[in-house]
Amino acid sequence: MGKRIFLACPTMHGEEQRFIKEAFDTNWVAPLGPNVTAFEEEMCAYTDCGHATALSAGTAALHLAMRCLGIGQDDVVFSTDLTFAATCNPVTYEKAKLVFIDSERDTWNMDPEALKKAYEKYPNPKAVIVAHLYGTVAKMDEILAICKEHGTPVIEDAAEALSSTYKGKQAGSFGDIGIYSFNGNKIITTSGGGMMVSANEEYTKKALFLATQARDQAPYYQHSEIGFNYRMSNVVAGIGRGQLLHLDEHKALKVAIYKQYEKAFADIPEVKMNPLNPDGEDNCWLSCMTIADSSAVTPTMIMDTLAAENIETRPIWKPMHLQPVFAENDFFTAKGEQKNMAPVKGDNGDTWDESVGGDIFRHGLCLPSDIKNTPEDMELIIGLIRKCFGR
Ligand SMILES: *Cc1c(COP(=O)(O)O)cnc(C)c1O
User: Which residues are CB-contacts of 390 (< 8 A; sequence separation ≥ 6)?
Assistant: First the structure.
């Protein structure tokens, strides 16, 4: 069997070690220190987000966003449906009520029409969480206009979309609060980590306070609120500073991978690549494809074919409304509230439904998008996939 070809894994450049060495040399091996502050400043400069708090994970950033917006028991929060569970899990940490919004086909992200339908039943949600799937930015103009009309704060889950832009602005800078992730498979990584950003310094200050155990200003350990241990360490931030220097380069390589797949499958009418937002420059974090029903080839067949050659792929995120743990939660599509949608049998034996998210999930897969993949690796992957379609 050939060498392992990855979906997306860390790409280090050596500069990370310079910042880590500095941390060791100055004994700043602590959840505090010059790298943390510098990483926050450098991220603010890159994203133009105003203020930032470096944290232990993107999920921690989302959790603190809940606290900053005062989301609590029985509050309603609207969330993107077709996403990773981390987008919405923090809502449940605070015992608020999750309502899922279907995707649209143009970007695979939250459908503004479905969002409007959700407002008809729930006019006063406490927040709307919008994720940018696979680095493609959602239709932010439409979504922000609807949320503004209702006075709802927006949390932007840009975990997958760092460096993507929309109408000249960085993903993560549109919401009242934005979050990024530096998990191992993201476009840049710190091994694990995250950041909460906002134009409103009150939020990032509050996040810092809560992330460091919510200590009151007192000469002893006094607490008026429950806090967390969510701060990023100075060593981890050093990796982030080194990685940030290469973010644009990573983006260019990701975009090139997408373009290569797009070109390679252009003559197969049953195959479509995941959409990019024409109003910006997406980072193409993961390249994905969907296969039309008219083809005898299924996503599972492609995944099995590549797995046999030691090549990693991944299914599309399974929509939240189809998750057993969220079986009781409300779900809205562009047609309105959905209960017991017509089930559709997927090729792996499970059943989905006719929502847009369910449809993308049933027909799609994520392709190897690691920036260290060589031209030979790409040729091998593309050749194997084309062969499945008899090309
Ligand atoms: C990775 C990811 C997260 C969570 O980030 P962590 O740093 O792993 O906690 C949240 N949302 C989305 C969409 C993600 O892909």
Answer: none
